[in-house]
């Protein structure tokens, strides 16, 4: 049984985006609602095509590569080709990983750049960065 989601795009935000254009004057109240519905239908067709691509590869998760393949193979999404042109193919990513590993095994001792999260030593665990604020020196005196 297929789940039916009742997702709606925010009409007020669509209206604000449309009014940011100087050429757009007054618009009918139904215009942002119709744009919202058109966006829902577009996203539904894009996701359906990407899901079928994901299933054809026997993958469990939809990835960027699946969306890229969907855009390149479906004529309906030709206008998105320039958007997905910079997305690396998964085969290129694997070759790049193998190449970087072989360089390090050959005696390349160049230091790896550290992530900012590993420098601080904080992960995404429960409750980090939430709760009571610590008192600073000025507040504690």
* Quaternary status: single chain
Q: Outline the low-pLDDT stretches.
A: 93-102
Q: Strand count, sense and closure of the main sheet?
A: none
What global shape is seen?
extended
Q: Determine the mean pLDDT.
A: 76
How many angstroms separate the termini? 63 Å
Strand coverage percent:
under 5%
**Number of helical runs?**
7
Q: Give the beta-strand count.
A: 0
Task: State the helical fraction.
Answer: 40-55%
From the helix content, strand content and strand pairing, which structural class follows?
Answer: mainly alpha
- Rg, please? 24 Å
What string gives the helices and strands in order?
Answer: HHHHHHH
Give the SSE map.
Elements: H1 11-19, H2 30-56, H3 64-73, H4 81-84, H5 90-105, H6 116-120, H7 137-140
């Amino acid at each position: 049984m297929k789940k039916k989601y009742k997702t709606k795009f925010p009409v007020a935000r669509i209206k604000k985006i449309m009014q940011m254009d100087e050429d757009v004057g007054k618009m009918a109240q139904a215009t942002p609602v119709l744009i919202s519905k058109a966006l829902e239908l577009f996203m539904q067709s894009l996701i359906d095509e990407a899901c079928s691509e994901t299933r054809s590869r026997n993958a469990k998760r939809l990835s960027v590569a699946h969306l890229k393949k969907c855009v390149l193979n479906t004529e309906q999404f030709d206008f998105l080709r320039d958007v997905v042109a910079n997305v690396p193919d998964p085969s290129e990513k694997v070759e790049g990983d193998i190449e970087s590993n072989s360089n390090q095994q050959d005696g390349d001792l160049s230091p790896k750049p550290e992530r900012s999260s590993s420098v601080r030593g904080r992960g995404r665990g429960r409750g980090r960065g939430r709760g009571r604020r610590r008192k600073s020196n000025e507040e504690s005196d």
